[in-house]
Amino acid sequence: MADREAKTNAISGQPQKITMDFDPPKKPKINKYAFTCALLATMTSVLLGYGIGVGYACMIAPVYTAEISPASTRGFLTSFFEVFVNVGILLGYVSNYVCSKLPKHFGWRVMLGVGAVPAVILASVIIWMPESPRWLVMQGRLGDAKRVLDKTSDSVEEAQIRLADIKEAAGIPENLTDDVVQVPKHSHGEGVWKELILHPTPPVRHILIACVGIHFFQQSSGIDSVVLYSPRIFEKAGITSSNDKLLATVAVGFTKTTFILVATFLFDKIGRRPLILSSVAGMIFSLATLGFGLTVIDHSDQKITWAVGLSVAMLLAFVAFFSIGMGPSPVVYSSEIFPLRLRAQGTSMGMAANRLTSGVITMTFISLYKGISIGGSFFLYAGVALVSWVFFYFVLPETRGRTLEDMEGLFGNFKWNFPKKKNNIKEVSNGSNGPNANGQVQLGSR
Q1: Which residues contact 145 (CB under 8 A, 6 or more apart)?
Q2: For 313-363, what is each residue's pLDDT tens digit?
Q3: CA–CA gap between residue 133 and residue 255 (Å, rounded)
Q4: Residues near 22 by beta carbon (within 8 Å), at least 6 away in sequence
Q5: I need a labelling partner for 262 at 20 to 30 A (CA). Which of 188, 273, 384, 427 fits?
Q6: How far apart are CA 154 and CA 413, in angstroms?
Q7: Angle between the 156-170 and 142-152 helix axes, to the nearest 10 degrees?
Q8: CA–CA separation, 84 vs 297, rounded Å?
């Protein structure tokens, strides 16, 4: 029997298959060089809250990380940005708690000065980081881009494919392989804003809506109100001790950081859409329940223990649900969906919408809860989260495992434009049933 199979294979001219040919491909290991570059780039976000430098970093770090990462681990590496945001928040809470024990004239100086430590570290190591391979290609430096791709790809073959895709996106002919080549003028960025805003193609319009929308809804859920005003929220929930409020605030930072770390390992395993949709669903439930608990406390003349416990638990649950999906998703998603020619400007628009929305939400929170009550504020945030779930379901396609150059093909048709079901039966050219040129039988369609 084995001899017969070998003979058949010899006749067909096909190589004989062995068991190893059918084994599933091994999961690629994390590229250490790309991991280090991503780690250093995204460390800038630990200083979120400090004036102009971090404003640059909020846009540049995610784009750089997405462009330098292989597709297999891009979600994992790009989510580091949000990890360090939360590490910075947690360190801020801890330093506040520690500095509150110091003399007032000294404590605030220590709290402000510690922010210089990570900045000094970053300034000393960032000069050793390579340029983005896509930026190098756009400058015509193909040799430098190839060397970076060789270091940051999972294999030599992947590096070659990535370079070919980037060259095609930049408008550089495939047969140009010199270390330095002339780049077409249109790939330098002329007319980007016109193509992005004034006369976008359907895919670009869809991408822009998805980018700005995911950043807007992330902040309009009220997360920064919880982060910045958590002591006041805990006070409204019935925790009056200053020490207890600070400790509860540290718990918020710890929960946020822990679940962000969990999310980093899930992006490339289960995809962006499942994480976002399940995260927002949990946020809706926790925000509505938190609003209910705070409303009960607000309308009671005495301390209701179960309502206090429910409110604290739901606040931490909201932070956990947010962090496991909605927290890192905007940075990961928006930094990978734009075409090469529009990526920097498009991502900057998303981040601008993020920071603008955050500023509006945080500056209006106190006036909001004074106007419609603390419980009413979280009911409102729950309503916004519900709208965001519908938006994400219909607007955001899955991007897991796709190369950056393939992303534009995913956009242009919104979810509600369901394609008609195609007939899977192929029609032979003469309209009759019979074998084709390869000896395979095809049925004619009616």
Answers
A1: 133, 134, 136, 137, 163, 166
A2: 999 999 999 999 998 899 889 989 998 888 888 998 998 999 899 999 999
A3: 36
A4: none
A5: 384
A6: 32
A7: 140
A8: 35
Q: Identify the CA nearest to 410 among candidates 421, 402, 418.
A: 402
User: Which two tokens mark 286?
Assistant: 């926790």
Nearest to 282 by CA among 329, 321, 256: 321
Cross-strand pairs, 435: 441
pLDDT attached to residue 184: 73
Q: How far is CA 29 from CA 83, 356, 360, 424, in A?
A: 21, 38, 42, 38
pTM of the model: 0.74
The β-bridge partners of 434 are: 442
Q: Bridge partners of 441?
A: 435
Among 93, 72, 71, 87, smallest CA distance to 39 is for 87
- What local confidence, expressed as pLDDT, does residue 439 receive? 39
pLDDT at 185: 67
Bridging pattern class, strands 434-435 and 441-442: antiparallel
Q: Which residue has the tokens 């604290």?
A: 312
User: What residues have CB less than 8 Å from 439, skipping those under 6 apart?
Assistant: none
Q: What is the pLDDT of residue 143?
A: 93
Q: Using CA atoms, how far apart are residues 53 and 46, in angstroms rounded to an integer? A: 12
Q: 410 versus 18: which is more confidently predicted?
A: 410
Side chain identity at 282, as an amino acid letter? G
**Per the structure block, which two tokens stand in for 195?**
């193509």
The CA-atom distances, in angstroms, between 104 and each of 49, 101, 116, 241, 247 are 22, 9, 20, 19, 19
Q: Compute the residue count for the chain.
A: 446
Give alpha helix (H) positions in 338-405.
343-372, 374-395
Determine the residue type at 131. E
What band does 52 get if pLDDT is binned at 50, 70 and 90?
A: low
* Residue 119 binned pLDDT confidence (cut-offs 50, 70, 90): confident
Residue 227 in tokens: 């982060």
Spatial separation of the C-alpha atoms in residues 298 and 313, rounded to whole Å: 17
From the number of C-beta atoms within 10 Å of its C-beta (0-12, 13-18, 19+), residue 150 rates as middle
What average pLDDT does the structure give for the chain?
Answer: 81
| Ramachandran assignment for 136, one of left (phi > 0), alpha (psi -120 to 50 degrees), beta (any other) | alpha
The more confidently predicted of residues 426 and 366 is 366
